């Protein structure tokens, strides 16, 4: 059984709407070249919470909480052709989207 190569794309963003639009753009580009795709697979959202005092000195009970959410998606492209890889490298995505690409 031949071993399949896979291009694993991991996309991260703070806003899920921008993330979904970027994933859709990546999927459309890959499907245009007849690539076989697995995904997008939603990964768990990473939530980081910060608690800060509203004021200094004796008002210890007055606190404010902030949170930062990082939304993530995973896309696998099976047996990518050079045309697919070239099309994905020339793709322009909105700012605020982080992409990690690995060849497995």
Explain the overall architecture.
- With 104 residues, the chain is of the alpha+beta class.
- The protein has two helices and four strands.
- The protein has helices at 16-32, 82-89, and strands spanning 6-13, 36-53, 63-78, 97-103.
- A four-stranded antiparallel sheet has the order 2-3-1-4.
- The longest helix is centred in the N-terminal third of the chain and has 17 residues, at 16-32.
- Keywords: Ribonucleoprotein, Ribosomal protein.
- Pfam families: Ribosomal_S10.
- Part of the 30S ribosomal subunit.
- One of its GO terms (cellular component) is ribosome.
Q: What structural class is derived from the secondary structure elements? A: alpha+beta
What portion of residues belong to β-strands? over 45%
- What is the makeup of the main sheet? 4 strands, antiparallel
Radius of gyration: 19 Å
Task: Please give the order of strands in the largest beta sheet.
Answer: 2-3-1-4
Shape: elongated
GO biological process, one term: translation
Family: Belongs to the universal ribosomal protein uS10 family.
Function: Involved in the binding of tRNA to the ribosomes.
Organism: Candidatus Lloydbacteria bacterium RIFCSPHIGHO2_02_FULL_50_13
Question: What are its keywords?
Answer:
Ribosomal_uS10_dom_sf, ribonucleoprotein, 4 strands, Alpha-Beta Plaits, about 100 residues, structural constituent of ribosome, four-stranded antiparallel β-sheet, Ribosomal_uS10, alpha+beta
Short description:
The protein contains two helices and four strands; from the N terminus they run E-H-E-E-H-E. The protein has 104 residues and is an alpha+beta fold.
């Amino acid at each position: 059984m031949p071993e399949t190569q896979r291009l694993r794309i991991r996309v991260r963003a703070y806003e899920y709407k921008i993330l979904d639009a970027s994933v859709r753009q990546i999927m459309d580009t890959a499907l245009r070249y007849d690539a076989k795709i697995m995904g997008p697979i939603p990964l768990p959202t990473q939530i980081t919470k910060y608690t800060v005092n509203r004021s200094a000195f004796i008002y210890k009970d007055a606190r404010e909480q902030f949170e930062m959410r990082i939304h993530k998606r995973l896309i696998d492209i099976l047996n990518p052709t050079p045309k697919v890889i070239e099309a994905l490298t020339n793709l322009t995505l909105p700012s605020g989207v982080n992409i990690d690409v690995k060849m497995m």
